[in-house]
Specification:
By secondary structure, this protein is of the alpha+beta class. 18% of the residues lie in helices and 44% in strands.
């Protein structure tokens, strides 16, 4: 289990847990980022992450990406 910013690019990942405050966690869940969901990283640039969730692309800043743990 590693933070999202340290995961390998172009691999299928599974979200294990999200460790943010409740408001941010609910917002991320509405975007499809929740425990058990499969995602893949498209790009990592200076800690900012672009990822694919279902058929959508999302951009996350470094602060949020360090609080999402994947395997």
């Amino acid at each position: 289990m590693v933070p999202l910013i340290f995961a390998n690019k172009d691999t299928n990942l599974k979200i294990i847990k999200v460790t943010t405050d409740d408001k941010t966690k609910r917002h991320l869940e509405n975007l499809g980022i929740l425990a058990g969901e499969n995602i893949s990283i498209i790009s990592i640039n200076n800690g900012n992450v672009i990822l694919k969730v279902k058929e959508s692309r999302l951009a996350l800043n470094q602060g949020i990406a360090t609080k999402i743990f994947v395997e």
